[in-house]
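Run log, item B.
One chain of 201 residues. Sequence copied directly from the ordering sheet:
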Amino acid sequence: MPLIENTFLVLGLWALVGYLLGSVPFGILMSRLFSLGDLRKTGSGNIGATNVLRSGSKPAAALTLLLDGAKGAVAVLLARAFAGEDAAQLAGLMAFLGHCFPVWLGFKGGKGVATFFGVLLALTWPVGLACCATWLAAAAVWRISSLAAITAASASTIWMALLGAQQVLLLGIILTVLVFFTHRANIERLRANTEPKIGQK
């Protein structure tokens, strides 16, 4: 955990900036841009890249993935540049929460995986890369996006400890718990062996 160097007012400002950045629903915007219909009525109803992929457009899914990751990274990098490490971690957390619970969509957003990766890559890129590699390896083995996400989130704190990133360990634990929370329905389907595989509509 970083030292708290900013006032609560400054931290509150960057928490708001992080939340607003995170709450931009790029999945819905890409679905409209590519004329894919209402994403919330497609597949799982989720606004993330995996559900965009289920709608049938790989370019739209790829753009959603990149933009959802970028908004987490931008929140961290802006806060770090203007206020320091404590604000950066808070902005990253709030960007994740903004994606998962956007006020514009009645607090019903995505599951936060891409934003999770974006936040980690901006905070400590070796850990972010290791988590991305973990997701790719798990996805290659099981072909299930949610299982790969849960695996990568579970491994994140291990990577933090191994790669000397203890300053983000508390945030990593919080984000991991939140990833499990947003994937609770997926976990039930995994237990029932009914979770769809990547690319399956």
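Observations after the first pass:
- The chain has ten helices and no strands.
- The radius of gyration is 16 Å.
Flagged for discussion on Thursday.
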